[in-house]
Amino acid sequence: SPACEMVWWFSKSSEQYRISGELELIGDEAEGERRAARKQQWGNLSDKAREQFYWHQPGAAFSGEPTVPAAGRDADGRVLEPPPDFLL
Asked: Using CA atoms, how far apart are residues 11 and 33, in angstroms rounded to an integer?
């Protein structure tokens, strides 16, 4: 179901904002403007935030060398394409 509700709570002012509507997840199959927006948001993330998307599944057995690309960048320092599990 695309139904969604979100709540933002601001503790200092005790304000609460609620938004409800339909949610559309934008993944790697997106095209046109949606694809461009997803890529832009991926590039806007901090290096550490991007890196987390390449971590292994929590609790999964691990052996060998880490395969997480530092900062989500390639060997030349360019930001990698968003992985399939990055949704906008």
From this structure: 35
